Model the fold of this input.
Amino acid sequence: MAEQTAFGGKPIVIALVMLIVVGSVMMFVVMEAWNTINPNPYEVPRTYTFEGEMNGEPCTGEGVMTFKNESEVWHVYSLDYTLSTATVSEKHHFGVLFNASDIPDPDLYEYLGTKTVEGMELGLWKGEDSGIGYVMYVGDKCSIIQLDIVSEGLNIIGHRVS
Amino acid sequence: MSVRIEAQDLGVSYGDNLIWEHINLDINQPGLVSILGPNGVGKSTFMYTINKILEPTSGRVLLDGDDVMELSFKDIAKKVAYVPQSSGETFAMTVMDTVLMGRYPHSGYTVTKEDVEIATDCLIKMHMGEYAMRNFNELSAGQHQRVMIARGLAQMPELLMLDEPTSNLDIYHQIYTMRLLRDIAHERNMTVLIICHDLNIASRFSDRVIIFRKGTVYADGTAQEVLTDKTIYDVYNVKADIMPVDGRPYVIFHADEKDELDPDHQCGTVEDPAVEEIEKEMAE
Amino acid sequence: MAKIKYKTTINNISQKLRLSETARKHHGKEGATEAENIINEYRAYKYAKALMLIVVLFLCLIALGVDIGLGPYSIDFIKVYEEIINRFFDWGGTLDLEGKIVWELRMPRVLTALLAGLGLAMAGSAMQSMMKNPLADPYTTGISSGAALGATLSITLGIALIPGNFGTVANAFVFALIPAAFIILMSIYRKPSPAMIILSGISLMYIFNAIQSYLMIIADPNAASAVYNWTVGTLNGASWDKVPFLFAVALLGGIVLMYMARILNTMNSGDAYSKSIGINVNRSRIIILVTISMVAAGIVSFTGIIGFIGLVGPHIARIFVGSDNKILIPAAGLMGAGLMLLADCVVQIVAETMPVGIITSIIGGPIFMFLILRQKKEVW
Done:
């Protein structure tokens, strides 16, 4: 019955479809490779180091902020970081949403003004996540150059290192 | 109720090819009317002019006195139903839905309860009642034909036109269909116009026979009047004897071995194959 | 021997049934004549088809429910539904981050997927009916290459018919209609054969592709990458300000196509027959082609060229509801919507950065292959 199809046979149809599937996968692979070679500044992961005091004790930490591809119009980032003192180690999460104009969504964050840091003019925005307050120093292309963690017992400053 | 069809000085050309002209016909009696003639003579073309599928290049066609060119397709559809030549194409709709197509000129976008009742009625008359919910593509050729006729009848027409309704049926079903069509014409007092190839079948059941030949109407009248051995020879170039059976002429063909038969013989108009092609294309 | 016995038993049984039928007819006791039986059967049949449609709708809703819960930013399923329900009760209320993500980003994405699938599959279904060809899809008239060229012009060179956010969309839409206009103009003069339509689409495709390739070469890498993303079909650009347009396109297109459904059914029997029952065949054909083109162009200009939905959606729907366009067109639409949502689910689970068009090819290709290999000629 398959021989009666207009294509002249099962094998050819199967081959063509496999070609389409393989081609699609290849396209995706090429695009990913392309993105690795030409990274999109919005989408590269950002690493942070933290320094400060937690409950009176000196504290350091590090974390990675990854781009969450919910949309290309608004940018969503998710920062997972750990803070360690001599005695304790805590994991925290901070999510942030930038709107179409590349600023943190004014509905969620409070604008505090601008500040010049190392020659760059950065916007200051205040927000909170899971009970912890943050002040973001925002530069171009949704880059958070500096992140101040301000909360009960926490007085920490984070810098983007990459 | 039967509709009066008049062709007045009717002529049709496909581009530069003249098919026929100066055709004058008056069909004003109900009954089964057969149109005969060789291939390519323009029989289907004639049917196309009656329901405006084709526009004539000269003359006009009148339906109950109205020029067809001034009527809308919908108005014509309420009086004239057309059953195309069987194309072997099938579709995956139920028989009932197929017959309901014929109700379009009366009910437009929606299918009303009345539509379903009329369609059911037509199916039962065609003895296809028990197949109503079957898929159209599961039926045999003979059953296809009956569904198509039911579809035509569902239009509640005054004129039913069928293009070669018996061409792909076996002999039993040819006779069955012709008898059915004749009975429909008589019971409903309407005109049933068919294109037929088989002279004897046409002779047996028709009330009137019209023969086309080389661009004109060669003969028009009862089967007895029209089907003579002279006619057969003039129109088809074949020798035959006529034997009356039950008052109807029966054509018995001679196939004399001595006779030279020309493979490229054309009985119709000069552009034989072109006409057939075009008529087919129009139907698509 | 056994075979003959089997046959005679069947014959006996059917004879008995027929006799009882005639007995019923004669007695008229139960009052149900053959005609009434048929009418009732037909009504039952119609209800069954409607039920099938509801089943397809249900599947679509399930896909919708799952898809909205999925996304790169991890949010609990329950939280997602909470946000949605809360929003319904408190429209003007403030949202937190997760609420914003669900409402501003995911809802438009999911709605775009749904509406795109709806529109493409309805258009595809009408196209297949009209061309009497199960391989037709809404892009057959060549709109995909036109849309791609328009989008490329906007993304790489910034040349757009209207500035701003909708620049690419407007470009893609207008350019998409060029091949369609070509064919529609042809149809006015002479009924285009399937060969003519396909060749016209292909020739324009080559010309447009050539221009597009040149633009890609001279463009900067990020723009070129953005063009690739767009061309393959993506939901990433979805936002609330775009959703109303998609909604309008899908709704209006759907209404027109459903209105023409009965005409589409009849056109299957041939032009001559269709004219004979009062259908203006040329005008109908143009209306349908224009509608299909507008719907497909309208969707594609927002999402890029998503393949296989318009081709496979109708085929699967046909399995559920048959070929009557009155039911097939909406069913195909729902099926297309479901497929799009499913594809988006796969994207969110497997590779969040993958444009949805790649998944529709990867899923759609084998589905299509399976469908046509099992196809008997009569299915069409």
User: Anything to note?
Assistant: The longest helix of chain A spans residues 10-37. The beta strands of chain A are 46-54, 57-68, 75-84, 89-98, 110-117, 120-129, 132-138, 144-151, 154-160. Chains A and B do not touch (no CB pair under 8 Å).
